[in-house]
Amino acid sequence: MEEFASEEDFLKKYNSSDYPSFAVATDILVFGISSLDDKNYKKLDEKKMSILLVKRDTYPFKDKWCLPGGFVKINEDLENAPKRILKDETGLDNIYLEQLYTFGSVKRDPRMRVVSSSYMALIDKDKLKDDIRNNASWFDIIKIEDNNALVNFYLFNGSEHISFSIVKTLRELTTDRYSFSIKENNCLAFDNPLVITSGLERLKNKVEYTDIVFNMMPEYFTLGELQKVYELILGKKLLDPAFRRIISNKVEQTDRYKTGEGHRPSRLFRYKKNN
Predict the structure, then answer these.
(1) 264: exposed, middle or buried (C-beta count within 10 Å: 0-12, 13-18, 19+)?
(2) pTM for this entry
(3) Are residue 175 and residue 260 in the same domain, yes or no?
(4) pLDDT tens across 55-69, in order?
(5) Domain that holds residue 47
(6) How many CB atoms lie within 10 A of CB 153?
(7) Do both 137 and 257 map to the same domain?
(8) Fewer CB within 10 Å: C terminus or N terminus of the chain?
(9) 138: number of Cβ within 10 Å
């Protein structure tokens, strides 16, 4: 172990170029649920999932899309950084956030060693009041998983599309946990495909045993709408009895109804907070 004559000598050494550059950052996954833009009254309950991305205007990865993110300030609490960055980069404020994972691959950022503490935000996009920044855009998500543990993602915002492929490897058989690696990536910056995949996997795992899904729902909703959101997140159709068991203690019936032209009125429910 190297010896120092004084703390001053130690700090001179510590602040010299002998120590590598290192930074802590945060990346924010913003998932939004909204109704399909379809005038067909038979599809009033259909939903879609979107993710919010921003286009970089500086190097590295200039002109590439990425998750909202940035460096944590030296005097900033870690949990405050994603709130600040999300508002600065997208305009969104006061939305649900929870910590996701820490990503620290050695070469994830070409500038220096950067460890990112990622966060996940969940919103009902239909009731969003904040205007997003000009450099931000919502991308609808399509996820296709084949039998060979390859997961293909297609993101599109009406004028641009992004695709990437992830290899999914079972890590722990007893806990059904997976590790992910990027096979192809054509437009996303850094290791954002891994962050997105991990976030969707976390959301999928939590939706059945927590009430997290209600952060993406309006105050009043039909059971059909809620079931569509569950199916979007889980990536599979649910039989009505199985779905009713999942939500039996989570919702309560109201005296309100949803009506639409040519559509039979549907009873509206709401989240039962004290279940």
Answers:
(1) exposed
(2) 0.86
(3) no
(4) 999 899 999 999 999
(5) 23-206
(6) 23
(7) no
(8) N
(9) 18
